[in-house]
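Limitations

Structures in this collection are predictions, not experimental determinations, and the ligand pose is part of the prediction. Treat each record accordingly. The example that follows, with flavin-adenine dinucleotide as the small molecule, is included so readers can see exactly what is and is not provided: the inputs are given verbatim, and the output is the predicted complex.
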Amino acid sequence: MVDDIANPSDEHSMLREMLRDFVINEVEPQALEHDRDEKFNRALFDQMGELGLLGLTVPPEYGGAGMDATAAVIVHEELSTSDPGFALAYLAHSMLFVNNLAYNGNEEQKARILPKVCTGEWIGAMAMSEPDVGTDVLGLSTTAHQREDGSWVINGRKMWITNGAIDDEGTPADVVWVYAKTGEENGRVRMSTFLVEAGMPGYSVGQKIYDKTGMRASNTAELVFDDCIVPAENLIGIEGQSLLHMMQNLEIERLTLAAMALGISRRSLTEMNRYATERSAFGKEIRDFGQIQRYIGESWAKYRAMRAYIYDTAAQMKLGQAGHRLDSDGIKLFSTTAAKEIADAAMQVMGGYGYVAEYVVERLWRDSKLLEIGGGTLESHQKNITKDLGKDPDAINR
Ligand SMILES: Cc1cc2nc3c(=O)[nH]c(=O)nc-3n(C[C@H](O)[C@H](O)[C@H](O)COP(=O)(O)OP(=O)(O)OC[C@H]3O[C@@H](n4cnc5c(N)ncnc54)[C@H](O)[C@@H]3O)c2cc1C
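Predicted complex:
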């Protein structure tokens, strides 16, 4: 019997303790500045490599920590209590690239690349979205054609790619997991995945995207593939069969984005609760006012509900296996909007102070909005859940 669903073993508790120390000593002091300057903190990222966190879910033989989905939630939750923007850069690297490669790459690809991305020597990214296509992922227009010598030529643009650029000088990510169309069969797109590495001809950064509402401590970029030549050995799996691993990786992506919502909620609640005691008006603490109690009480209940649902889903999730779509969509649908509402409640409770950066919740409020869009919009989760319950109505009664 597990006492605490969020800390099911000593190993998980120790991981959380380590993260809490790291957040207090290293993450919190830099968060405000990196948000303001729209800068990704490479040195902090390298420190995570030293702590063994960049290859969190990678088997130890490839330089990883070999941990599970619950551990992934713990790391994203703790980082997001302080710096969701940095947490997003971590997610794009460790979940969207590293975890994906660990479960879907072949032996040669894993042996060659995983040690580099587990230490932080290389920064990874995942490129699915395009300027004209997001939710409608099968409508992608990036193409890959095989040449006689077996190598591939990729043409197209990818948009909104976290870690796509690693600095303001247009330096591209060291390695990108790129989805491209390799043909059509019976009216269906054949989608394939390629590892594109810095220095390969035709791969460059189109632009780093500035002035984002939130998540400003992570770099977001447009990537260009202009007759980009990729060797045959950089194809992942079998040509035309990427949909399965794409769907599988979306599940861990949604779980960890929901974990970020949990971290934002926890910090927002902490801040509003403390402030409600410190601040007095009309001769009493503001926590004595019924309207303030509504903000705090409702935020607590939402926070506890999302915590239970997220960790329950993590406990069921087997990395490298699809089949958790209903709940990975469910947790993201519920917790991202709840986090935005909780950050908003915190700002309201804190009045004018809540509205300025020094008091943290204004940044969390801005960061929370991305979670309703990235990794699947709210509408896509509603669509998927309704589709899945249509196919499997018994899920409601299990
Ligand atoms: C900061 C940031 C970081 C990101 N990082 C990455 C990354 O690392 N890699 C990557 O590949 N992508 C990334 N993205 C892209 C992100 O995943 C997409 O923005 C998202 O999937 C939505 O796609 P879109 O923006 O093209 O919107 P669209 O899909 O065009 O949607 C526009 C609107 O139409 C709605 N809509 C679309 N289809 C339907 C439908 N069938 N039913 C009902 N409503 C619908 C949507 O819900 C939305 O409200 C990032 C985005 C941002 C902003």
